[in-house]
Write a structure and sequence with these properties.
By secondary structure, the chain is an alpha+beta fold. It is built from six helices and 19 strands. Keywords: Decarboxylase, Lyase, Pyruvate, Zymogen.
Length: 379
């Protein structure tokens, strides 16, 4: 199946400069180099890439294993591609964990790499937001960098519990109503018994005490790109009731854009239900329970919580929750019915077409601490 996936990828993009892996032998060579790759250059000739080199390095890895395979159709997978097939997914997680260990070494960081990120304004290193760069001895220390002070991300309405703030620098993706059976309906989503429903209880652990707690509520999620600040914070204040880490897939849907000559991730809704993630459930009292679910995406899907994040401990809105390590990431939140949650993040002036060719809003990039939504309570 891996050989078939590589072959299908070659059909989609036959260009050797942007798709150098043409067979299984090439793939093995690619893995040897990828296991100690400093996230910046993925191909032999980086000049062929766009300036999004760090994102391209992630996307290319997954492009090779994200091709649809007939052998995997109707197997109950999110998509019929190799990266969602359990035996390969398990190996893939082991591989990206091995790469993560390399990114914890000083071999993964140098002045040239730092300068490349500094020169790219999207990383914000010229804005004075972050701790001294002398603190970064490894790539992961840079990627999980701290803010210089809390003043760099003011918390909107800190004394107003109804105001929900962005948990991270990210782009909101929208909000979905949860029905009485804890399902959400997603256009173009995974068909389960011919219906495109996902059950939000599947985001929680099998032994969670809070399955069914978010029926009739709202799901929302927001996407972090590789250049974003990758520490996440409490979007609401309250007492932690439950905390878990769940190790599953490390996957990304990827397309090759011939027109743009680059790879692009698909930020859909649904893949989160099979992905490596963590969660904490917070009791806000007046507005009920809120599930905060940092979602790993691609490599390295490392979801880490602060030591102070434990059941029974109260945290204020905006306080540190944890961090991701290398990889794009997503942050899901579940609100109970009694919260009356509404997404208030700024909408962009343009719209996009969904899988049913209906127009959907897209949102502007938001900084951690800015207003994300409002809990209006029971109406």
């Amino acid at each position: 199946m891996l050989e078939k996936s590589i072959s299908e990828a070659k059909k989609v993009n036959p260009d050797l400069k942007t798709n150098p892996v043409q067979n299984l032998s090439d793939y093995y060579d690619f893995l040897d180099s990828a296991s100690e790759l400093i996230p910046q250059n993925v191909l032999e000739n980086p000049s062929n890439l766009t300036r999004d080199q760090i994102l391209q390095s992630i996307c290319y890895f997954y492009f090779l294993i994200d091709q649809p395979l007939p052998e995997l159709k109707d197997k109950g997978l999110f998509n019929n591609s190799l990266q969602y097939y359990a035996p390969f997914s398990s190996w893939n997680r082991a591989f990206v964990n091995a790469w993560g260990k390399f990114l914890d070494t000083e071999k993964s960081w140098n002045q040239q790499t730092y300068q490349g990120f500094y020169n790219d304004p999207r990383f914000g290193l010229q804005k004075g937001w972050y701790e001294p760069s002398s603190n970064w001895k490894t790539f992961n220390e840079f990627f999980s960098r701290y803010l210089k002070s809390v003043d760099e991300r003011p918390i909107a309405s800190p004394e107003e519990p109804m105001v929900v703030v962005a948990p991270a620098d990210s782009v909101p993706q929208g909000a979905w109503t949860i029905d009485k059976d804890s399902n959400i309906k997603v256009a173009g989503g995974l068909k389960v018994k011919l219906t495109t429903f996902y059950n939000v209880d599947d985001l929680l652990s099998d032994d969670s005490q809070y399955k069914g707690a978010f029926a009739n509520g709202v799901l929302t999620h927001t996407f972090l790109n590789v250049n974003d600040y990758h520490r996440y914070h409490f979007a609401v204040g309250g007492i932690i009731k439950e905390k878990q880490n769940i190790a599953q897939n490390v996957a990304v849907e990827v397309i090759w854009s011939k027109k743009q000559n680059k790879y692009a991730p698909i930020v859909s809704t649904g893949w989160q239900f099979t992905q490596t993630r963590g969660y904490v459930i917070v009791d806000t009292e007046k507005y009920g329970l809120v599930a905060l679910i940092p979602m790993g995406m691609a490599q390295v899907s490392s979801v880490n919580f602060e030591g102070s994040v434990k059941p029974g401990i109260a945290h204020k809105k905006g306080s540190m929750l944890g961090n991701f390590l290398f990889g794009g990431s997503d942050f899901v939140m579940l609100f109970q019915d009694k919260a009356g949650f509404e997404l208030t993040a700024r909408k962009a002036k343009t719209t996009v077409k969904n899988a049913n060719q209906k127009s959907e809003d897209i949102y502007e990039h938001i900084l951690m601490g800015e207003e994300y939504g409002v809990m209006k309570g029971m109406q």
